[in-house]
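Structural prep section.
Before we set up the soaks we want a predicted structure of the protein with zinc ion in place, mainly to decide which crystallisation condition to try first. Input record follows.
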Amino acid sequence: MQLSPHFSLAELTKSQAALRRGLDNTPGEREITNLRRLANAVLEPVRARFSVPFSPSSGYRSPALNRLVGSHDGSQHLTGEAADFELPGVSNVEVARWIAAALEYDQLILEFYEPDDPSSGWVHCSLKAGDNRRQTLTIGRAGVRLGLV
Ligand SMILES: [Zn+2]
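Run finished without errors. Recording the C-alpha cells verbatim:
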C-alpha cells in the first residue's frame, strides 16, 4: 500500500528487530491514517527539498516492538505519528533546520548528531492531526536541550 507518492506502508512498518523476534508490527486503521499524514506532510516535502530518495529507519512501532527497542510508552511511533530518518549525503542538522523553518510538526528531534560527523545521528519528526506543538529538541550524550545545535 502506498501512503504517498514515494513512501509505502511496508517501509514505514518494517523493523529488523521485529523480524528477528517474530513480532507482529501491523498497524490499525488509525495508525495508518497517521502514517499517511506524516508521509505526505513531512517525508514528501523533505524528499522534494533535498532531491534525495530515502527510506525511514523507523516509523510505526507496535507496543511490543516499542518496548523491545527501549522506547517510552508515550512515543509517537506507537500511534504512527512519528518517523526516524536520515538522507544519504545530507547533514542531519541541515535537514532538521529546514523542517523547523518550513514545515508543520509536533515534535522535531535531532538525535545523537555530532557536529564533526555530518552523517551522524538521525532526525525524529512527528505530526498530529491538530494542536501541533512545534517542539524542537536536540538529544545526545549530553542529554536533552531545547532547540537545535
Ligand atoms: Zn523516533
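Observations: The pocket of zinc ion is lined by residues 58, 77, 82, 84, 124 (CB under 6 Å).
Flagged for discussion at group meeting.
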